[in-house]
Amino acid sequence: MRPELTSLLEKYEQRILGQHINLRLLLSAILAGGHVLIEGVPGTGKTQMVRTLATLLGGEFTRIQFTPDLLPSDITGSMIYNMKEGTFETLKGPVFTNILLADEINRTPAKTQASLLEAMEEKQVTIQGETYKLPDVFFVVATQNPIEFEGTYRLPEAQQDRFLFKLQIDFPAFEEEKKVVKQIIEQSFGDQDSSSILNLSTFLSIRKEIEQVTLGDGVLEYIMQIVRKTRESETIRFGASTRAAISIAKAAQAWAYLTSRDYVTPDDVKMVSKPALRHRIQLSPHAELEGITIDEIIEELVGSVPVPR
Fold first, then answer.
1. Are 164 and 276 in contact (CB under 8 A)?
2. Contacts of 181 by beta carbon, 8 Å cutoff, 6+ apart
């Protein structure tokens, strides 16, 4: 792993306390070229987590607050008529950025949610029949509140499948939470160093290095068996797609790179399987009635697959 990436992780963990694993998973996702869905109650630092990562990467950050009256054109952009010139001009929306925070994405109707599909999958946006490319580094982080569902619109399965990970942000441990409060009280807003550790060209070169991390046939077989198990389990109504297997493989390469290895191990696969699968499978009705959680099912499935040697 490059020294710049080590410095970035150290600085990241100094600023965002109590989320060690989630910070590494978030960085792994962007290094793998994927997008992340974050679920957590308000006030747990989700926005700060994404904003800080954008700053450290030296990328442009944009936040959109999703509301019921938000229109697709408010995200992608629109054509406007210039009366002075007598011509139509393209007004690009906030999606033209490096890191986009879609805050409370489930508070806007499906039509507006779907406006991000093309951007997330193909890194391009179509405005009035004209296609525009997005930046090479384009990363969507969407948040949703798990405890309040009134006035919300559930994300369609097709859109959830576009996210590489679903991370669950919980409250930090007592001592870590105490440190957070102490830091906020003692520091003024201007005291924090807001300089970047990487630049986007360096980031892209690191991403190419991650693509070269070795994924052996035995580990690939292990990934495929885990994914296929989700389709065979009686506790799961709908299993994971082929995109899920691709997501696990890419995320495992990124996680291995962050662990300073040039090859993927079964432990890397285990680490990324839960966040890569929890939003891609649906429990059967009887499993839901029994109170079984998706994470428990994933742990059981992964544990049932023989580990390659």
1. yes
2. none
Domain 213-304 fold: Helicase, Ruva Protein; domain 3 (1.10.8)
Residues 6+ apart with CB under 8 A from 90: 77, 78, 79, 127, 128, 130, 132
Give the pLDDT confidence of 31-84 residue by residue, as tens digits. 999 999 999 888 888 988 999 999 999 889 999 999 999 999 999 999 988 888
Strands 61-65 and 36-40: unpaired
- Cα separation, 3 vs 16, in Å, equals 20
Cβ atoms 137, 59 nearer than 8 A: yes
Q: Tell me where in the chain the CATH 1.10.8.80 domain(s) lie.
A: 213-304
d(CA 199, CA 52) in angstroms, rounded, equals: 14
CATH classification code of 3-169+179-185: 3.40.50.300
Q: Which residues contact 123 (CB under 8 A, 6 or more apart)?
A: 133, 134, 136, 138
140: tokens are 């969507």
Side-chain half-sphere CA neighbours of 246 within 13 A: 9
pTM for this one? Answer: 0.91
